[in-house]
Structure to design on (176 residues):
């Protein structure tokens, strides 16, 4: 079995209009919500063995906040193609991941992260599925399981959506 975690970067800052989009850092809200997702992942036993990350500053900062909260090491793959990637291009990057990466986390941007989750999800709890279609928040996490031996085997509409975790739900549970 393979598990895919699709993580949208935490809230980024727009305070410096002269910065290139690629160089935008996290906003204070991003620094506050990213740890909630890391804590949730650790408490839920979610342990990516590999991470595929966009090299944009806000995605790297999101990963830097989450990674220390997870118990095991992760092999990191930074890929320029994830920045402004289309969902099908993201899927091709995932197809190329080594089979030793049994639990893979992709840290990327919207709308591609949301569109990839929709592309891969063929079923799931109705409320979760509707949430996925309508909104994928910053620092949101989707969890999908695949009954495949290799990443190259996963296909559109082939998976059941296991979880969709918005940071706001974690804050409302008193985990802030």
């Amino acid at each position: 079995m393979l598990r895919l975690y699709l993580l949208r970067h935490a809230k980024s800052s727009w305070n410096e209009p002269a910065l290139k989009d690629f160089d935008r850092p996290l906003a204070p809200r991003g620094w506050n919500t990213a740890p909630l997702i890391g804590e949730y992942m650790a408490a839920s036993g979610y342990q990516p063995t590999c991470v595929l990350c966009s090299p944009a500053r806000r995605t790297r900062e999101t990963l830097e906040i989450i990674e220390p909260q997870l118990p095991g090491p992760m092999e990191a793959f930074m890929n320029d193609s994830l920045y402004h990637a289309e969902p099908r291009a993201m899927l091709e990057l995932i197809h190329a991941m080594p089979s030793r990466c049994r639990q893979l986390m992709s840290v990327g941007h919207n709308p591609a992260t949301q569109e990839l989750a929709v592309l891969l999800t063929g079923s799931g709890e109705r409320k979760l599925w509707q949430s996925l279609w309508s909104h994928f928040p910053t620092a949101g996490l989707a969890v999908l399981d695949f009954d495949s031996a290799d990443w190259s085997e996963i296909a559109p509409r082939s998976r059941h959506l296991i979880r969709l975790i918005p940071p706001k739900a974690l804050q409302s549970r008193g985990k802030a």
Observations:
- The chain has six helices and seven strands.
- The beta strands are 2-8, 50-53, 75-78, 103-108, 121-124, 141-146, 159-165.
